[in-house]
Amino acid sequence: MSYRTKAIAAAALSLAAIATIAPMSFAHAADLPPVKAKAKPIADVPFFFVNDNLLTYAVQFNATDPGVTAKTVKQVYAYTHFDVWAYGTNFITLSLAKSDHADPAAPCGDPFNANPGNCAGAAEFYGLIRSTFGWNQLFNTKMFSVGGVLNNISFEVGVDGETENQFLAPNKKDVVAGLQFAFDLPYKGFLDIAPLYYQEWNHNAYLTPGLVGTGCFPVDACSGISDGNTRFNATWALEINYYMDLGFLPEQINYFSVSGRAGFYGAKGAGAASPSTIQASNNTAMEINSEPIRLTFDASKAVYGAKYAHFLDVWVAYRFWENKFGLNDQNVNNPVCYTNGVNNRSCTEKSLYAGVTAKF
User: Which of 204, 210, 228, 216 is CA-nearest to residue 112?
Assistant: First the structure.
């Protein structure tokens, strides 16, 4: 069963439970016949209606990291948690990505290193939390479910955190807040669209005084950022997620589903707060971080039947990440994305991605 289907079932169960335990008025109670048998105690409603935990191992075959001119293979280890409770949902994912030698760890991997292939690969940690609070549940209504298409409207809040031990040394922290519009798709599918407020803080070693560049006018007018810690302007974000079983397939091969996500994040300035100054070429551009499509084969359902659906999934996906961390891939003066005036293809990622996910 899909997450959206589970959420709908959970909401229905929640409303039914509320109706069941509502106290009866004295007027209606007086009209009832005497109770001849002791009523059964009402079972406790669980705090979480759905509580899924997943472990994933995946390989990204043609990954990039800003400032690293060679493509890298990344092995990804991830833990994902999803739950549904009376008033909304919680989604948490924690991942560790280990690069090969093409993406070296600091300090060996600085841009002046002549032979980075002898260095250990960088390691990146990423964590994400998103929580929703459904309007149907908060206000005890079905007003925000419309025509079998719009399922719910929710408040959404979240945080992200990322760090990597390579030369750029990103150390991303952000907060998001806004709304989520949840739509139903055929075959137990869903489409979630969330317009959000977005605020980010990060780190960029290339903006320290010794590496800030010569793009300022007059020359050397840029002070750089002494510790490389960037303080970005608030901006907008749009996050989209979808999932759908391929239910139109014949029953004997009905083990496949498609899903995907896309995050669009507006330009957020250059990241320098007064009195720091950096060149205009470091102004950020709109970032697109996406996995447009993932094709999943439900191996456990194929082997053991529908009772074990999605206990073991095997999947392949395509990864597209343009202007990573907001670094402008089209700006020839950007010292991270361009080497000697030539685009080093490190700030936009296009890669196949495959993995195995197990539920426990």
Answer: 210
Q: Does 108 score more than 70 pLDDT?
A: yes
Sign of the alpha-carbon torsion through 93, 337, 291, 314? negative
Q: Give the rounded distance of the alpha carbon of 134 from its chain centre.
A: 19
pLDDT at 201 over 60: yes
Q: What is the pLDDT of residue 83?
A: 96
Which residues span the domain enclosing 204? 3-25+45-359
Residue 30 lies inside a defined structural domain of this protein = no
Cα dist. 345→28, 260, 336 in Å?
74, 24, 10
3-state secondary structure of 145: coil
Q: For the chain, what is the mean pLDDT?
A: 86
| CATH number for position 247 | 2.40.230.20
pLDDT at 282: 85
At residue 310's C-alpha, the angle toward residues 305 and 316, to 5°, is 120
The domain tally of the chain equals 1
